[in-house]
Structure formats: structure tokens, C-alpha cells
Amino acid sequence: MFKSIRPVVFKRGLKVTRPKLSNLNQWKTIVQILTGAYIGGIIVISGSLYFIYSDANKRQPIPLELNINDQVNSVMAINKDEVLGSPRFASKHYRALLVNLYKEIYPDYKETNGYDIPILDYQALLKKNTKFVNFYIDMVLRYAKTLLAKGESQISVSILRRIINDDFIFENLADPEKLSNGSRLLSKITSDTNEKEQLLNRSIAMLSSAFNFQVKDNIIQNMKLSDELLFCLNDLAFVYAKSGKLNESLTIYLSNLKILEEIKTSLENGKSQINYPLFNCNSENITLQICSLKAHISEILFAKNYKDKAIQMSQEVIDEIFYDYNSNPNVSPILINVLHNLKAMYKKIGDEKEMSKCQNMIDGLPLFDADLRKSFYDEMISKWSKIIYELGPIGIITKPLSERYGPKQRIKELEEIENE
């Protein structure tokens, strides 16, 4: 028998020389570098976008049920409005968002040109969850504010009235303090004194009901209050003063001053923020609130012919905050107003020496630099926002790289990048 013969297979060996191996390693290194740069770029871009979203969400919680387009409009509106301080540029995003939300419920709505928008009624809002309702009402109020910055006061007033004058929405839906804030805004821009008083009294009653504040005849009965309640009472006192009701105005101001001084004393004696959960117990805030009240009380006292007491109270304010002028942006309007009022008081009593002293203090005030009060976080979020609007998310990487090998480039403002 014949044996089977196996076919002869010729094997060709692959011989890798050192030069080829070296080239292969070089390509491998290059691929690894490119892959790392690509992944790193994705991480940085995603992280920067999430940073912007997270910041906007902290300022006003954004409902997850919004579609991606509405979420983008929400973030851009809040960012341009609060972070970059450009409400005129935020208005288009607020409007697009609010019109889209209306169309989702009423798809037959035909959009028109102009700044006016349709507003969801309480029946539509009742079908939504609390987070959405709070978000929606806040967006409407924000949009109304941006219209004031654009000079569209009539439309702004119309939008505010549709929200504020709806009793069911005002008393039962959304965040009471934000609704009250919108009511105070409306009271500032309306010219009717009776409407101003009505709006503020309504806000005080609503806040008292919502948070169980004890307020009788516009006087707080205990130390339970919130910043918004205090603002409403102070605004009402201001309206009274402007309309000649000096006694009513002075009563409210003095009552609020007494409450704040009692809170300040209690905090110095060991109580903390937890005892006043709705009020900002920061010592700086309390000091400025007290000084602001004293400034108003001083004006009323002088008008009621208590000139010495009025001058003394204004001087107390100056002594308290004069040296904080250049480091605190909130001090500036109070201090300058008090100095001018004090100068006017001395002019009326014919004291030219003290008048000259007040003028010298005004002239000697250093140039105020608001950037001194910006935190690292505020500066970063503002800088990143501007870069992203100008160069896109990739600009977070490309800008510092280009500046490392070339001249530093100025970050452009929104006005230079886009139209309103």
C-alpha cells in the first residue's frame, strides 16, 4: 500500500527589524496621544456645558420633562440674564421657551411677531407638577423684567398683571416669595398710587397666609419674618411717604427698624440662622437693612421738623458704612443718597460748613470697583460663559492653548458677538 504523502507547505516568516519596530512604536504613541486628546476634549467640553447647566439649575430648578430645545433656551436665558447681567439678550430665549411651552398644550396657537406672549391659565397649570409650575411662573416673571430693560414697559405691565391679578395663581400656585417679588415690581412701575398700595397690601396678606406671619396693620407682631415681607413693608412705607402719609410711613419704618435691631441683638447673643429660616441673617445684610431704614426715617423726621434727630440719624449711617464703600457694592447707593440728603438738610438750616464737609466726603469717595466683590466662582462662570458664546465649548480648550503660544486675547462681550 502506498503511504499518503503530505503536501509540502512553504512558510514565509515575517521578520520585524528594529527600525520597523521603532516606527510601529512611534505610531502607537501618536495614536495614544490623539486618543487621549480626543477623550480629554470630550470630557472638558461635556464638563463645561454641564457646569453652565448646573449653575442655571441652581438659580432656578429646570424640570427634566422639558425637551432639549427648551432646556437649552432655559439655560441660556438664565445665564445671560443673571450671570452675564444682560437681560436684553436673555429676552429672546425666555420668549422662545414660553411660546414653546404654550404650544405644547395649545398646538393650534398661531405665533405672532412682537414681545407679547400667551400665558398658561391656572387650569392648564393645575395639570402640571409643582416643580414645573414654579419654573413656569418664574420664567414669566423673569421675561417681564427683561422687557423693562428693552424699554417695553407696557407689555411688561400687561404680562405681570395677567399673573399677579389672577387670584388663584397668586394665592395658590408657585413660590409665594417670587410672586410677591413680581407684585412689588408691578407696584414700582405702575403710576397709580392706589394700585401701588393695593398690590403691596395684597402681597403682605398673601405672605402672611403662606408662612403664618403675624402682621397687623402693617406691623410685624413678632420676630418671624422674611426678606420679602420686609421689602413689601418698606415699599409700602415708601409709597405712603411719597403720597404725604408721613405718620403711616414712619410707623412702619420704625417698627421694622425695631424688629431688625432685636434680631441683630439676638444673633449676637447666640441665636443663629435656624431661628429665622426665611430671613437672611448675614450680619452685612442686617447692617445694610438697618442703615437703609435709618436713611428713610431721617428724611421723614426732617420733613416733620425734627431736624436735629434727622441729622443725627443720617450721621449714624455715615459712621457705620462709610469705610465699606469701596468693598461692598450694596453700600454705594445708601451712602451716596444719605450724603446728598444730609447736605440738603444742612443747606435748609443754613450750615455752610457742614454742607462743605458733606460735599468733600462725596468728592473724596474712591472710584468703586464692583469686581472686588466677585467671588472666584462668579468670575469663572462669567468667563466660561463668554468664551462658550464666542468660540463654542471647544473654546475652553483652544483659547488657553492659543494664548500659551501667542498674545493674550480679550474675551468679547455679548454685544460684540450677537444681536439682541
What is shown here, in short?
Helix content is 69%, strand content 1%.
Task: Report on the architecture of this protein.
- This protein has 18 helices and two strands.
- The N and C termini lie far apart (98 Å).
- The protein has a two-stranded antiparallel sheet.
- Among the domains are: 36 residues; 112 residues, no CATH class.
- Keywords: Membrane, Transmembrane, Transmembrane helix.
Sum up the structure in keywords.
420 residues; mainly alpha; two-stranded antiparallel ribbon; 18 helices; 69% helix; transmembrane; membrane; transmembrane helix
Task: Summarize the SSE layout with pairings.
Blueprint: H1 18-59, H2 68-83, H3 87-105, H4 122-125, H5 130-149, H6 153-164, H7 167-172, H8 176-189, H9 193-211, E1 215-216, E2 219-220, H10 227-242, H11 246-268, H12 283-303, H13 307-321, H14 331-349, H15 352-363, H16 376-391, H17 395-404, H18 414-417
Antiparallel strand pairs: 1-2
Keywords: Membrane, Transmembrane, Transmembrane helix
Transmembrane segments: 30-53
Radius of gyration: 31 Å
Mean pLDDT, to the nearest integer, reads: 88
| Uncertain regions spanning at least 5 consecutive residues | none
Q: Hey, roughly how much beta strand do the residues contain? A: under 5%
**Strand order in space, largest sheet:** 1-2
Largest sheet: 2 strands, antiparallel
Termini distance? 98 Å
Q: Number of helical segments?
A: 18
Global outline: globular
> SSE string, helix = H, strand = E?
HHHHHHHHHEEHHHHHHHHH
Helix percentage: 55-70%
Q: Strand tally, please?
A: 2
Helix/strand-derived category reads: mainly alpha
InterPro entries: TPR-like_helical_dom_sf (IPR011990)
Keywords: Membrane, Transmembrane, Transmembrane helix
